Amino acid sequence: MKSNYNRLCTVVMVLFAQFVFAQNMTITGKVTDNDGLPLPGVNILIIGTTSGTQSDIDGNYSLNVENGSSVQFSYIGFKTQTILISSAKSVYDVSLQEDNSLEEVIVIGYGSTNKRKVNGNIASVTSEDIKEIPVSNFQNTLVGKLAGVQITQVNGKAESGVKIRVRGVSTVNQSQEPLYVIDGIPITNIDNNINDSPVNPLLGLNPSDIESIQILKDASAGAIYGSRATNGVVLITTKSGKEGRTKVSLNSSYGWSEATNRRDWLNTEEYVELFVEANLNAGFTEQQAFNRLNFFTDNEADWREGLVDVDWQDFALVDGSVQDVNVSVSGGNAKTKYFISAGYNKTEAIIRGNTLERYNLRTNIDHDVSEKFKIGTNIGISKSQISRLSNDNAFATPLQAVAQVPYSSPYLEDGITPNGGTLYYNFLFQEFNADHNVNIWRNFVKIYGEYKILDELKFRSEIGYDVTNQTEDRFFGSLTESASTNGFADAYSFVDERYVLNNFFTYDNVFFEKLNTNFILGMSFEDTKSRIRFVEGQNFASDDLQTVDSAGEIVGGGSNITEFNFLSYFARSSMNYDGKYFLDLSARIDASSRFGTDTRYGTFPAASAGWIVSEEDFFDSISFLQYLKARVSWGITGNGGIPNFASRTSINGGRTYNQNPGLQIGQLGDSSLKWEETTQTNFGLDFGFLKRRLNLSLDYYNKQTTDLLLGVPIPGTNGGGASLLTNAGDMENKGLEVALSAAIFQNDDFSWDASFNYGLNKNEVLSLGVDDADIINGQNIARVGEPVSSFYLVEYAGVNPANGDALFYRNNVLSDGSIDRSLTSNFGEASRIIAGNPYPETILGITNTFRYKQFDASFTFQGQFGASIYNNGGRFQSANGDFYDNQSRDQLNRWQQPGDITSVPQARFFGGNGTQTSTRYLQNADFVRLRNLSFGYTLPKTVTDNIKLDRLRVYLTAVNLLTFTDYDGWDPEATADFNANNSLRAGIDFYSAPPAKTITLGVNVDF
User: Fold this and answer.
1) Which membrane topology term applies here (predicted)?
2) Are 849 and 745 in contact (CB under 8 A)?
3) What is the spatial distance between Cα 738 and Cα 701, in angstroms, rounded to a whole number?
């Protein structure tokens, strides 16, 4: 009996062993990131056991598992992924996606934190969000991706300035630009040009070198930068090396560009009909009209028979291109990490004669000298070469060519020489007989050392040097507008140097086991010096001699040196208890040489608190909501963007009568001049739904700006100009921001991620000094109770159907306080009204990203609503025959006989019938734009491994592919560049070129 029992046990054990042997298996594979690069040290764990392994330096792994087991792959900075093991498969290659959850590292002033600990409002993008967008500057890669941040390129010129407005406009006529900080060093953001068309000062920064961008929007986040944070702070972190084998990356692309929009103009037949009609209506004879038509041609058949019919826009807007090549080498070991890159960009703009060529070099090195001491350096060098154009307010600018009559030939019969007999100056002479070349060298160097005094205490010292060297050379030959002087040339040199020294202590410790603390205490010193030199000459012996040295007469010149500095002290404490209660306190004291001796120092405090409600025990019962954090912040920031020595009375030297030297009062100063101060309060809620696959942030803010820096009118008899810069006035911005992100679908083969951002802002001027007097600049006004830079115009009322007269609303205030809404055809009888706002009340962005196996795709829509735009060129372009200018096609709907119902008045040559500055040329600037669209394909690893590559990806991208708008100008965002640096002037379009629509084909190679 016992023998049978033993036999039975033996059989059972053998069968069990065979079963176990059959279920155990070895799996292998490779772990990579979402770019296909190997990840060493990935933790690989069999769920429910303590068994596991790690990937090796090449990302490979091997693990004994049982059939049906679940294996988890986890790595810092990446999303954890779990796979189910099947006996039918033994090789499992895993691609981990970067984790953008609460542990995402967020750069803040003089340090970093993670998203979980942030109490303020910080908008953040990474290199993944902005890569491969074919634009020449990094600012345009951010469009549509940040709630409450409006980013607009002034116009379609390759080097054009870029405006960033964070939570609205907080000043009337001082700088509205944010503070830019690269790798912890505040940098210069000064535009210098000689033709009133701004050059983007940050043009030299290569977008491919950027690791992340954080925009500090609320006061608690920005107050650590004190007197310059009211307009927001843009923190830019460049890429650095990571421990591991050397990685070489190549990105090369080529794109084709064209204007986002082209306008329609009258052809020769339509123009002649309109012109003759306008002359007859003005009391001239038909023969007089014909005589005038002959002014612009030697062949009457050109206009009578339509032998010449030119759309001059075809010569102004051309096909452009964008070429980009970027190479980087990165890697390192436990002691030294490095990132080295080189980049090249060539942009042929969609405006004739406008090109940009940029070269970039960058080296970032970090080295641990010992366990306590580390050093590093960040070096960026760029050279930008630009072939520039005149500003928008010049006949030499290409788009003003649309005013030429359509039967004027651009060239003479030889097809090469520009025609000099056109209505206005033929801009083609600029290409034929003129040059405007700009060279900009920008060098940025940061050196730092960090010493760990104690495990909890470290000291860091940073020295930054930022220098811009810009030269401009212009020559206008004897066939250009300078023909009367036999040619004109000038040479301009600008050098801007900034030295920055940051020294600060950082203390981190944990008290009472649950109280985590971080303290920063430091100082900063900045000194900025600018030098300008220029010389002008005319009367050249030959157009082949184009430098001032060859001028027969030197007609002008000068030089200037100016300097300002900041001395600052700052402190911040960040505390959290048990990982769910958070408190941040900060303060900065700034002293600036720009302000009065009595008010040189300003103090800028801030505080914020946060509570992760979902960490509380009572929250466990709420099943649909996995995360909830409440945030509140308060702080004071400043705006010191005023001219150097603005607080001082100055005496200027110069030439007086008969070239004798003399002195005169340059300006009157105010010794009590101080910063504009903005007090901002922010309330925020962060939600996480569906196991954090759906995340929502809501923020409400209120910004109160006091002590506005305004130029107050003074009697001219005082000398020193017509105004005195002083503190007077208040302004308010308040708004709502929504940021939503969702991992809509995720599995091994397919993923779909989406994000949405929405910003609502209301601006109001609260006061403007003692008497609250309006500040008017052209079509814009600052008035108490209204948004800053509102449009101030006579209200157009259409056309009198009986006689074709343009009509206007009188809008005069009557004795009883009511408004006279009666109509008049006499423009002088009408009063101006507030008619619109150049700044949008609502901005939004929507981004979707898809991945299917080796394919990827993404798109971003941006939208803007509530703004108006004034087409200042409309009074020439849509002028019902008032001038010789060719006209837009709305003129085909002009009034021609009694009873006609239209908004276009009767055509009258030199009649001024409705061409005055009025709301006739004010339009809605709402638009929705398909900002970015991309498709990519990454070759399978089986292919790239055979050709010894880590990754090879080809992609197709498009920028500004579609625009939906009712604006009938070139583009609802394009504005006059000669107004770009005038803070009060906003929303004015004057022959302003549209942005480029670019389609790019590129390749990424990593090895």
Assistant:
1) Multi-pass membrane protein
2) no
3) 12
Q: How far is CA 259 from CA 138, 503, 877, 995, in A?
A: 20, 48, 19, 6
Judge contact between 408 and 269, C-beta under 8 A. no
CA dihedral 200, 201, 204, 210 (to 10 degrees): -90
Using CA atoms of 276, 280, 285, 289 in order, give the dihedral in degrees to the nearest 10.
-20
Pairwise CA distance, residues 776 & 789, whole Å: 9
Of 497, 210, 530, nearest to 380 (Cα)?
210
- What distance in Å separates the CA atoms of residue 341 and residue 349, rounded to the nearest whole number? 25
Nearest Cα neighbor of 678 from 733, 598, 617, 641 is 733
Which residues contact residue 572 at a Cβ distance below 8 angstroms, ignoring those fewer than 6 apart? 109, 110, 111, 224, 518, 519, 520, 584, 585, 586, 587
Give φ, ψ of 207 to 5 degrees: -55, -30
Among 801, 582, 658, residue whose Cα is nearest residue 120: 582
Q: What is the bridge-based pairing of β-strands 694-706 and 988-989?
A: unpaired
- CA torsion sign for 157, 163, 164, 168 is negative
d(CA 982, CA 456): 49
SS3 27: strand
Contact criterion met (CB below 8 Å) for 524 and 500: yes
Phi, psi angle pair for 523, to nearest 5° = -140, 160
- CA triple 141-145-150, angle to 5 deg: 85
d(CA 431, CA 735): 48
Say how far apart CA 154 and CA 980 lie, in whole Å.
7
Q: In what order do the strands lie in the sheet with 185-186?
A: 122-126, 210-216, 233-238, 179-182, 185-186
Domains of the chain: 2-95 (2.60.40.1120), 143-242+317-328+340-667+691-795+830-872+917-1006 (2.40.170.20)
The rounded radius of gyration (Å) of the Cα atoms in the chain is 33
- Residue count of the chain: 1007
Cβ(46)–Cβ(71) below 8 Å: yes
Which residues, 6+ apart, have CB-to-CB distance to 680 below 8 Å?
A: 218, 219, 633, 634, 635, 636, 637, 701, 702, 703, 704
Instruction: Provide the edge-to-edge strand list for the sheet that holds 922-924.
Output: 922-924, 868-871, 988-989
Q: CA 614 to CA 830: how far, in whole Å?
A: 61
**Cβ-contact 81, 94 below 8 angstroms:** yes
The residues near 62 (Cβ < 8 Å, ≥ 6 apart) are 26, 27, 28, 53
Half-sphere exposure of 936 (CA within 13 A, CB side): 29
Q: 187: closest CA among 234, 132, 124?
A: 234
- The pLDDT tens digits for 84-103 are 888 778 899 998 876 655 56
Nearest alpha-carbon partner for 739 in 721, 754, 722: 754
Show Cβ contacts of residue 800 under 8 Å, excluding neighbours closer than 6 positions: 806, 807, 823, 825
Query: Rounded to whole angstroms, how far apart are CA atoms 137 and 124?
Result: 18
Give the C-alpha separation, 585 to 606, whole Å. 6
In angstroms, the CA 137 to CA 651 distance is: 40
**Tokens coding 527:** 């000194």
Q: Torsion-angle region of residue 137: left (phi > 0), alpha (psi -120 to 50) or beta?
A: beta
Would you say residue 203 has pLDDT above 60? yes
* pLDDT tens-place string over residues 137-196: 888 888 999 999 999 989 999 999 889 999 999 998 788 899 999 999 999 888 888 888
Number of Cβ within a 10 Å radius of residue 390: 23
pTM of the model: 0.88
Location of structure tokens 């769910």: 580
Give the pLDDT confidence of 714-752 residue by residue, as tens digits.
Answer: 776 666 666 788 888 999 999 999 999 999 988 878 999
With beta carbons less than 8 A apart as the criterion, state whether 413 and 888 touch.
Answer: no
Asked if 204 and 236 touch (Cβ cutoff 8 Å), the reply is: no
